[in-house]
Amino acid sequence: MTRPVGGGAKRALDLAVAVPATIALAPVMAGIALWVRSEDGGPAIFRQQRVGAFGRPFMVLKFRSMRVDAGSHLMS
């Protein structure tokens, strides 16, 4: 696997933006997590494994927007 030109600089820029943004938005994310959890008591975070670049799997974390038992409510 080859690294793109400027890969180190892009990584540094990504971290320079993502880390302060994550810290600044942490209270908002905590509020959203509490709100989602209060709706039905289920977990606030949904985890799913997806396939990324070069076929490498990675884990996606996002706030849950569906019911915990959504699969049991599917229509035939």
Structural class by secondary-structure content: alpha+beta
Order of helices and strands: HEE
Largest sheet: 2 strands, antiparallel
Total count of strands? 2
Overall helicity:
40-55%
Number of helices: 1
Radius of gyration: 17 Å
Q: Looking at the structure, what is the overall shape?
A: flat
Give the termini distance in whole angstroms: 45 Å
Low-pLDDT stretches are none
- The strands making up the biggest β-sheet line up spatially as 1-2
Strand content: 15-25%
Average per-residue pLDDT, rounded, comes to: 88
Topology:
Blueprint: H1 7-40, E1 45-51, E2 57-63
Antiparallel strand pairs: 1-2
Describe the structure.
The protein contains one helix and two strands; from the N terminus they run αββ. The protein is α+β, with helices and mostly antiparallel strands and 76 residues long. A two-stranded antiparallel ribbon has the order 1-2. Strand 1 and strand 2 form a beta hairpin. The chain is flat, with a radius of gyration of 17 Å. It starts with 6 loop residues before the first helix and ends in a 13-residue tail after the last strand.
